[in-house]
């Protein structure tokens, strides 16, 4: 196929190309010939010019110049002097020539243009007078013909002194074959001939090759053999005849060249075409191979895809096989298409079902109406929201059915707007309308209308959303918004820089205290508090005592927004109540103490009894001795001293009692804890003996220095001891043991322990043990432990209780001590 194509292309293109090439060649040849002719003529003219220069050179030769000055030249002569085959004296011995050309005559003319001396190279007569008559004056040259032969005449004036006669040198040069050949300097090849032509008759005057182009031949005779270009000789316009310069190029030679070029070119074209055909065939082969494989693959793919056996065969034309197989293929494809269509329909049905399910499950009521507002379709939500069935709504006017009479117009206008302007394809802005359900209950709704542009008509989808819940929420938010402003307690918002950005009405006393208005900056102390709160991130509570009110301020940071909220609480009354309660408490403590003292009175009376009895004894002893006049002065003095000691002791007891009952202000003094225990133990000594309690002391050696309010700590110890004795009432008489012990826990802490063998404290009692007014005793006030707890707390100490049912209870009081505390005398 490739070869055939190549051949056809070749047969069509070859003659065309050959002709086109021939034309190009002819044109090119013409130009070449003209160029060559111009070159030949140019060389010829240059050669003529050189002869002119030669003549000038000869005229200036010193021999000639000398000769013209000599008397020989000056004398008159009848006839010109002729030299033939010998050189005249005025001429250099070297021959006058250019290449192979020599002048046929060299003539010296005088000022009258008379030939005076003639040098003949050839014995050829020449009409010298005629030649001389054409002298143009000065140096010059002329072309002429004589006896049908062309000649070049060249003149040059000989340099001479003024007094001698003038002399003119004239060269006569025949324009023959040699001249023409020489003029071309052998550039022209032997097939090219140059010639001089007589223009009018078109006759040859002289040629560079006499054998081919002979003188006197007519140009017409030569045209068959030569391509001829004739030109006039421009530099020598005064040629006395119409002489032209012709260039003859051999036709045979040109044709041979043309033939050679054309054949070479054709050979190359042929080779090119051959290469083209080769490449084309190869490509064709490769493409067909590829196509073959592709068809093979299509066939096997089809077989696999459709599960049929046709048509793959390893060899043979796959196209033919495919053609036979294509109907089967189409049958199978249309079957597959049918199946796909069925599947698609099923999918559409499913998607329709899905869509309607989606519509039904939409939160909005969706109602489709036509352009007059009549219901065309509705979803389940609409049925549920308004309580109408779909059938009840279809064909009804949506506006009349659902909307409030005052709002129907608004809805109607919206539909009208869409009806008038077909370009409105976007949904409308939501309309807030009032709607009624089937029960006649009103609800606020938001309505959006979306046009559906169908081919012949326009429908509208109306989305109706029940916004009662949203309205409620909005109202809730509105009421919440007034939360802070309605708050009777101060609420403020302060930003990071301490500027009060919000303050409610109740904040007025606070602002007055700071002397600030809202949007002003808090004082430095408060600014720093705000910053610290923001940085630490925790809530902090600060108390602020104004002129009349006391506020508790809660600073809550909102780090993300760089705000601190200040919630104030007027705690003036709370603080006042606390103050009062404290007063009550101290009075209560006093009362309690007095009551304790009442109970202790018997004990104290017994104690006072001893010194008083001793005083009575000593005093009556003294009286007796004085009355009897016995005993010395020394004895009396001793007795009196004893009386004083005992009276002091009694005074001491009274003083202690007073101090215990008195409402003295708290006063901390440095004491030995052991002394306190011994002293209080002495108070209960009597009572204990009465109740059959065995009081045992186990005190730390070396004393325990504490800085305490003596009276208060004594009161605590008294309370604890009394409770212990009370508890042991139910204990067997010989088992009632009260142990009072002290110890140093560490350098900073000392303790006093009161343990009894009572019944122990049940857990339910243990829980309320330190509560005020909690007592299990009939006549108990329930203040003893509460006050004790408070007193120990005020001393930065602590009270701990351990109790074991049926075994007893241990109260331990820890008090702070100090290594620096030194008891006097220890
Ligand atoms: P009061 O002695 O007036 O009842 P207290 O505050 O001193 O008030 O004691 C409260 C209660 O704690 C007592 O009623 C008693 O039930 C219980 N209690 C105190 N000490 C002991 C103790 N050592 N053993 C058993 N119960 C005790």
Automatic annotation (TrEMBL):
Transmembrane annotation, as ranges: 270-287
PAS domain boundaries: 351-422
EC number: 2.7.13.3
Keyword set includes Glycoprotein: no
GO biological process: regulation of DNA-templated transcription
Tree of life domain: Bacteria
Keywords, alphabetical: ATP-binding, Kinase, Membrane, Nucleotide-binding, Phosphoprotein, Transferase, Transmembrane, Transmembrane helix, Two-component regulatory system
Record SMART domains: HATPase_c, HisKA, PAS
Residue span(s) of domain Histidine kinase: 603-819
Enzyme class, spelled out: transferase
Catalytic activity: ATP + protein L-histidine = ADP + protein N-phospho-L-histidine
The keyword Lyase belongs to this UniProt entry's keyword annotation: no
Pfam families the UniProt entry points to: HATPase_c, HisKA, PAS
Protein name: histidine kinase
Highest classification ranks of the organism: Bacteria, Pseudomonadati, Pseudomonadota, Gammaproteobacteria, sulfur-oxidizing symbionts
């Amino acid at each position: 196929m490739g070869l055939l194509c190549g051949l056809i292309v070749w047969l069509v293109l070859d003659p065309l190309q050959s002709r086109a090439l021939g034309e190009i060649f002819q044109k090119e040849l013409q130009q070449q010939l003209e160029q060559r002719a111009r070159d030949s003529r140019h060389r010829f003219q240059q050669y003529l010019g050189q002869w002119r220069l030669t003549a000038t050179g000869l005229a200036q030769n010193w021999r000639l110049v000398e000769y013209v000055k000599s008397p020989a030249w000056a004398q008159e002569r009848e006839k010109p002097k002729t030299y033939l085959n010998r050189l005249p004296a005025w001429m250099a011995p070297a021959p006058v020539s250019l290449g192979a050309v020599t002048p046929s005559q060299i003539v010296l003319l005088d000022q009258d243009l008379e030939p005076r001396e003639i040098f003949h190279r050839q014995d050829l007569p020449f009409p010298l007078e005629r030649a001389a008559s054409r002298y143009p004056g000065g140096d010059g040259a002329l072309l002429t013909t004589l006896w049908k032969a062309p000649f070049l005449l060249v003149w040059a004036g000989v340099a001479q002194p003024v007094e001698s006669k003038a002399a003119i040198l004239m060269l006569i040069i025949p324009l023959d074959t040699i001249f023409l050949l020489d003029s071309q300097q052998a550039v022209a090849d032997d097939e090219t001939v140059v010639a001089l032509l007589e223009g009018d008759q078109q006759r040859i005057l002289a040629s560079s090759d006499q054998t081919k182009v002979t003188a006197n031949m007519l140009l017409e005779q030569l045209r068959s053999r030569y391509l001829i270009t004739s030109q006039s000789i421009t530099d020598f316009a005064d040629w006395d005849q119409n002489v032209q310069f012709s260039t003859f190029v051999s036709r045979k030679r040109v044709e041979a060249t043309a033939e050679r070029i054309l054949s070479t070119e054709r050979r190359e074209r042929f080779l090119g075409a051959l290469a083209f055909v080769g490449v084309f065939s190869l490509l064709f082969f490769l493409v067909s191979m590829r196509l073959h494989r592709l068809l093979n693959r299509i066939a096997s793919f089809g077989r696999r895809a459709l599960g049929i056996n046709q048509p793959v065969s390893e060899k043979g034309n796959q196209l033919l096989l495919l053609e036979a197989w294509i109907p089967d293929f189409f049958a199978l494809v249309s079957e597959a298409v049918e199946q796909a269509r069925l599947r698609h329909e099923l999918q559409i049905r499913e998607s329709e079902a899905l869509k309607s399910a989606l519509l039904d499950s939409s939160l909005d009521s969706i109602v489709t109406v036509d352009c007059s507002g009549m219901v065309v379709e509705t979803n389940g939500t609409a049925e549920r929201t308004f309580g109408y069935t779909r059938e009840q709504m279809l064909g009804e006017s949506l506006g009349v059915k659902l909307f409030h009479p005052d709002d129907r117009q608004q809805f109607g206008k919206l539909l009208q707007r869409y009806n008038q302007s077909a370009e409105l394809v976007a949904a409308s802005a939501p309309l807030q309308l009032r709607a009624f359900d089937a029960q006649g209950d009103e609800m606020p709704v938001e309505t959006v209308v979306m046009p559906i542009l169908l081919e012949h008509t326009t429908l509208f989808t109306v989305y109706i959303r029940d916004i009662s819940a949203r309205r409620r929420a909005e109202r809730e938010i509105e009421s919440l918004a007034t939360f802070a402003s309605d708050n009777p307690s101060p609420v403020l918002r302060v930003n990071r820089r301490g500027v009060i950005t919000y303050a409610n009405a109740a904040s007025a006393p606070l602002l007055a205290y700071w002397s600030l208005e809202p949007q002003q900056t808090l004082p430095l102390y408060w600014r720093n508090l705000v910053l610290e709160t923001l940085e630490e991130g925790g809530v902090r509570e600060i108390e602020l005592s104004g002129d009349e009110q006391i506020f508790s301020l809660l600073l809550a940071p909102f780090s993300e927004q760089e705000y601190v909220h200040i919630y104030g609480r007027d705690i003036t009354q709370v603080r006042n109540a606390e103050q009062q309660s404290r007063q009550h408490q101290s009075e209560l403590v006093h009362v309690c103490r007095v009551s304790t003292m009442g109970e202790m009175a018997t004990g104290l009376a017994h104690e006072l009894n001893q010194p008083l009895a001793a005083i009575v004894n000593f005093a009556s002893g003294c009286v007796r001795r004085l009355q009897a006049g016995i005993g010395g002065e020394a004895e009396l003095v001793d007795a009196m001293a004893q009386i004083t000691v005992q009276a002091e002791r009694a005074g001491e007891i009274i003083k202690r009692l007073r101090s215990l009952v008195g409402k003295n202000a708290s006063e901390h003094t440095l004491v030995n804890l052991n002394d306190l225990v011994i002293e209080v133990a002495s108070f209960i000594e009597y009572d204990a003996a009465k109740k059959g309690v065995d009081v045992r002391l186990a005190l730390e050696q070396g004393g325990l220095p504490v800085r305490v309010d003596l009276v208060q700590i004594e009161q605590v110890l008294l309370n604890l001891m009394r409770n212990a004795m009370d508890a042991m009432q139910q204990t067997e008489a010989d088992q009632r043991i009260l142990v009072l012990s002290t110890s140093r826990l560490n350098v900073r802490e000392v303790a006093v322990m009161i343990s009894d063998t009572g019944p122990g404290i049940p857990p339910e009692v243990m829980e309320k043990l330190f509560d005020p007014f909690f007592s299990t005793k009939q006549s108990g006030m329930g203040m003893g432990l509460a006050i004790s707890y408070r007193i120990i707390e005020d001393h930065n100490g602590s009270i701990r209780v351990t109790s074991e049912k049926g075994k007893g209870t241990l109260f331990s009081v820890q008090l702070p001590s100090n290594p620096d505390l030194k008891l006097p005398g220890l």
